[in-house]
Structures are given as C-alpha cells and as structure tokens.
C-alpha cells in the first residue's frame, strides 16, 4: 500500500479484512499452527491419534473454542528429540586418524590411551577429548637464523671456541616424533625447548674445538657430535623427539673481523704454498746430491781398487822379470829395451829416418799418423769427460810403470 493511498491508516478496513480471513500465501506463518501440525504428523508416525474431548468434537478444540494441547504427544516428541540429541552427542565422539599420525585420547585432560590410524571413538565432550599428532612429518628447528641466512640471530649464532676465538655458526636441526605422549605432556613449548637444547649442545661441542678445526676440516664431526649430544639431552628431558640430522648452513668468523680474518687466511695459504715449493725443491735436489755423492764414492773406491790392483800387478811382474834377469841379464836387457822402444814409437807422432843408408825412397805413413793422432785426442777427451770434477788425475810421470823403472835401472848398470 502506498503512502498516498487515502485508506492509509484506516484500521476499520484492516479489522474487516482480518475477520474475513486472509488468502493463502499472505502474511507470516502462524507458529502455533506449525507446532500443531508437527505434533499431528509425529503422532501419526508413531500410530497415535488425537483423543476426542467431552463435546464429541474431533477438531482438537475445548469447550471454550480454544485449542487443547496433547500432553502425551508432546512427551513423545520431547523423548524423540532427546534421543536424537543423545545420538548426535555420542556421534560427536567419533574421529578419524590419518596414516602417519597417532591419536591421543584424554579423559578430563588426563592421558588415557593412544589410538592408531583409522576410525576411532571416544566419549564425547566434556568427558573425553582427543588430539592428533603427526609422527611421520620431518620437522625443522633453525638456530642462528630464521627462514633465511640473512636474518641472523646473533644471540644464538655467536659462540666461543677452545682457543678463545669468536665464531658465527648457523645450522638447522631436523627431527621426528617418536613419543607423541611425551611430546604433548612432558614439556611446554616443545619447539623452543628443542632450539635451546640444540644451542646448548653445539656450544659445548664448539667450546672443546679449535677455530680452524670448526671452520674447515671439522664441520661434519661437529655436526655429528652435536646430534649425538642433543639426542642424549632430549631423551633425558623425555621430549619424545628423534634427532635425524644436523646441517651446518654457515660457519664463519664474525662480520666485524671478516676482512682481517681473510687476510690471515691468505697469509696462511701463502705460507703453505711457499713451504710446499721449498719441500718440492728439496725433494728434487737432495736425491740428486745423494746420488752424486754415492757415485763419487763408488768411483773413488773403483779408482782405489784399480790403483791397488795395478800396483800389485806391476810388483808381481817386476818379480817375474827379476827372476828372468838373474838367469840371463844381457838377453833380458835387450828384450826390455826393444819392448820399451816399441811402446814409445807406437804412441809417438814422429818419424825416425835413417840418413846413413842413403836411400832415395822415403815412405811416410801420414794417413796412419793422422788417424792415430785423432784417436788419441778422442780418447783423452772421453777420459776427461768421464772423470768426476773433484777427481784429481795423477800425471803419467807420477805413476812410473815397471818398464820405465826397469829401463832406468838397466841403463844405470850399463853405465857402471
């Protein structure tokens, strides 16, 4: 109805329309009528019928014309509603545990039992409650940083080594749950507790190690010892966690001394390089020097043996010649003289000519003389090259042979 309608606000017309009755679909529904219809349908479902009143009317009205409620039907309705409510309440105690998880049932907040994966039931609230714990998930705790290595936590990462140096360590701890009951009831703020355990363990391990060991060759050992110590502390605290891995993300000196530390590292590397070069040079020179010394010793021993054997041979030959000389002095002197002259002339480059014979035919073996001279020079050069630099070769005059001594003695005897 519009506000401009002249019948606006005319309550008499409204009252007449109300007495005449409303058409279906006009106005809000009657709640009392809906309740009566619901009771009638529920009674019909359970086989109940409305009892007639004293007036014989079956329309459900009393003598005064008003509706008379059915108390028995109302009771049945309330019972059905109660049963449905109890069923819904009992059904609320059902819960499903996924694979890789465990369900923990608590009675008034106290642990009762642990349920496996699958469909499970407990007494509904407020008697019992349940909590699901994922025991197969690999969880991670970060120490010294959060989410990224750039977001450092200096109070966690800076620690002191055994040689009183400060080092910055950032690492991650991976773990799983082996005891869901201990994880839920034995400790409060489990992840924070595990982070404190990790920090305590690595500080103890680093405090027993040198700085260079932690920075370079000892990273894996530090991680392993930290994991072992963490597991011991976690078991002692009954945290219900299993430490699976400790990963070193960054191990370095503090940023304030990073430049000086780099210079020290470079100096150490230069020192090691120079030591290696010196050792390589020593490994090359010392064996050569030892070989040369051994060769000189062997050559000296060989020369000594040669001189000794030559002297012994010359002495033995002299004794033999002496025996023959005593038997026939003249013949022995002539033979020694001829052998000596033959030896001298065979190694001389001069030609002896008999001028008294007066022969016009002169034969000079120049080719043999030239070849003999070349062979003599080559053998002398080879002997000088083969002789060691420190070996002093005695001149030929310093080692007179038996033949020279014999010749001199025979000449002296002849002059006498």
UniProtKB/TrEMBL annotation:
Database matches in InterPro entries: Band7/mec-2_domain, Band_7, Band_7/SPFH_dom_sf, HflK, Membrane_HflK_N
Transmembrane segments: 76-97
Biased composition (Basic and acidic residues): 8-25, 405-416
Domain Band per the UniProt entry, residue ranges: 92-265
GO MF terms held by the record: peptidase activity
Region (Disordered) residue spans: 1-34, 46-70, 390-416
Protein name per Swiss-Prot or TrEMBL: Protein HflK
Provenance organism: Janthinobacterium psychrotolerans
């Amino acid at each position: 109805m519009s506000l401009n309608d002249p019948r606006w606000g005319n309550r008499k017309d409204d009252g007449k329309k109300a007495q005449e009755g409303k058409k279906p679909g006009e106005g809000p529904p009657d709640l009392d009528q809906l309740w009566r219809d619901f009771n009638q349908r529920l009674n019909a479902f359970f086989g109940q019928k409305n009892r007639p009143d004293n007036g014989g009317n079956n329309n459900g009205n009393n003598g005064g014309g008003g509706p008379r409620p059915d108390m028995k039907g109302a009771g049945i309705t309330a019972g059905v509603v109660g049963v449905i409510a109890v069923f819904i309440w009992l059904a609320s105690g059902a819960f499903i545990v996924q694979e890789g998880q465990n369900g923990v049932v608590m009675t008034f907040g106290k642990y009762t039992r642990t349920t496996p994966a699958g469909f499970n039931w407990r007494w509904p609230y407020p008697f019992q409650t349940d909590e699901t714990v994922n025991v197969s998930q690999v969880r991670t705790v970060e120490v010294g940083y959060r989410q990224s290595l750039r977001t450092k936590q200096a109070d966690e990462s800076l620690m002191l080594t055994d040689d009183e140096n400060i080092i910055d360590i950032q690492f991650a701890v991976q773990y799983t749950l082996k005891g869901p009951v201990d994880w839920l009831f034995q400790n409060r703020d489990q992840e924070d507790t595990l982070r404190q355990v990790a920090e305590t363990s690595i500080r103890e391990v680093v405090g027993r190690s040198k700085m260079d060991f932690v920075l370079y060759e000892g990273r894996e050992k530090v991680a392993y010892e930290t994991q072992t110590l963490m597991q011991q502390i976690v078991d002692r605290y009954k945290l219900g966690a299993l430490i699976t891995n400790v990963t070193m993300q960054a191990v370095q000196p503090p940023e304030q001394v990073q430049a000086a530390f780099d210079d020290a590292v470079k100096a150490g590397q230069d020192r090691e390089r120079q030591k290696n070069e010196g050792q390589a040079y020593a490994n090359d020179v010392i064996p050569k020097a030892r070989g040369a010394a051994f060769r000189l010793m062997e050559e000296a021993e060989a020369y000594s043996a040669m001189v000794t054997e030559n002297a012994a041979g010359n002495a033995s030959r002299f004794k033999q010649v002496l025996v023959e000389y005593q038997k026939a002095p003249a013949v022995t002197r002539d033979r020694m003289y001829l052998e000596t002259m033959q030896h001298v002339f065979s190694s001389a480059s001069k030609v002896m000519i008999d001028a008294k014979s007066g022969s016009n035919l002169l034969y000079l073996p120049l080719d043999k003389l030239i070849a003999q001279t070349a062979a003599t020079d080559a053998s002398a050069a080879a002997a000088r090259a083969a002789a060691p630099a420190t070996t002093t070769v005695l001149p030929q005059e310093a080692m007179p042979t038996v033949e020279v001594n014999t010749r001199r003695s025979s000449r002296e005897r002849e002059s006498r």
